[in-house]
User: What shape does this take?
Amino acid sequence: MADKAMTERLKTIRDREAADFAARRPRSAALSRRARSVMPDGVPMAWMAGLHRHAPLFVAGGQGSTLEDADGNSYVDFNLADLSNTAGFGPNAVTQAVAARAARGMQFLLPGEDAILVATELAARTRIPFWQFTISASSANTEVIRIAHALTGRRKIVMFDGKYHGHIDTAMTTGGAPGDNEPAVMQGLGLLPAAGADAVNVPFNDLSRLEAALEAGDVALVIAEPALTNCSLVLPEPGFLAGVCRLARDHGALACFDEAHTWQLAYGGFVRAENLSPDFVTLGKGLGSGTPLGAYGMSAAVSAFVEEHHEVADSPVRGLAIGGTTFASALSMAAARAMLEGVATEEGYRRIARLGNRLADGIDAIIRKHGLQWCAFRYGPRSGFCQTPQHPKTYAEAHHSMDIAFSDALRLYMANRGVWESIYSAGPQVSFAHSDADIDRYLDVAGSFIAELHA
Ligand SMILES: Cc1ncc(COP(=O)(O)O)c(C=O)c1O
Assistant: This one.
């Protein structure tokens, strides 16, 4: 279909579905009006207001893979709070452990045995030996960057176009690579350009651009998502991730893989799948299953540096600027332990990979049925409509693989039929709580959307 006709058709579907969506959610609308009198945009966290681009939705609760809104509508959730709650909702091993832990105290600012068990399990899975815990993946990456600065005595941080590592000033940048001839540009209001002075962003899957960025010998850290997961899905080319570690090491820089998303795509993450030995690996999101938790693993050498430079109360010499009073809480450590022991098990990962394959096969079948020049994203439990014939290899290519008008229309169409679609920049992902019936439901509704779009 010609672009103009497609744009019109998407708009027609979107307008119709948006009206239906709003009409069937009067209580959410009333709550939103009330909320606006005490919170900007009527939301407790500003990002919630811009994320979905439709009438406000207030949530009441959830059970397994299904969430329920304030009007009693239910949805099979393929977004999972952007992978922050892959254990699912309601009674499960994590919520039971959290309830038991809460009854005996949630935070003490003292270590408990759960922390040892979680660190031991993460070390066994990733083969990264030492661990620290924070409140989010953003704060884990912040600490990794600080340790890298302190350990190397260097300033620059190299990242890859299309990444997201959290709301960290240096990481919220584009550009700044040698050859760009301009400093990095800040990606948000309120970020001072000074923070961009140390930021270097190079194309993903491009080792020669990475090498050029490392050549001056001023790079403290190379940080990479092993697969770009915040701009559709861009998988690493064979040898790329090992090349990142090798080049960083050869140039005296440290390497970090941010597996906040990708550890939920494969047991032990990409570091295990590709037998990688970076200096750091970052985790978060579903590890805490909705409780605030981030984590970073480090090599023995980095751990020794952290031990040598920890902050000592009232010492004239300041230590590393890391840690916080609600970090590594007893509550979040109990959640992580239950997640690892009872939900995100090796068997659990095998199951979500099987369901993810079914989802991707089903999406491919829809694409073929309508003769589209698209393909399904696929990696373990992650899938979605890739709107180019081949999978993207860079951020620039990823841009063409997704379309916000398509995503907006699909989201509303699916929500009105009981499926909560992923956010625009991601794709539907199977959680540990999904069933075969949930996959059938997704494919059924997505199939009828595409059929209407291409009728
Ligand atoms: C790869 C990656 N790292 C870090 C973060 C930041 O996570 P959080 O918002 O939980 O701090 C995200 C969030 O989307 C992410 O995708």
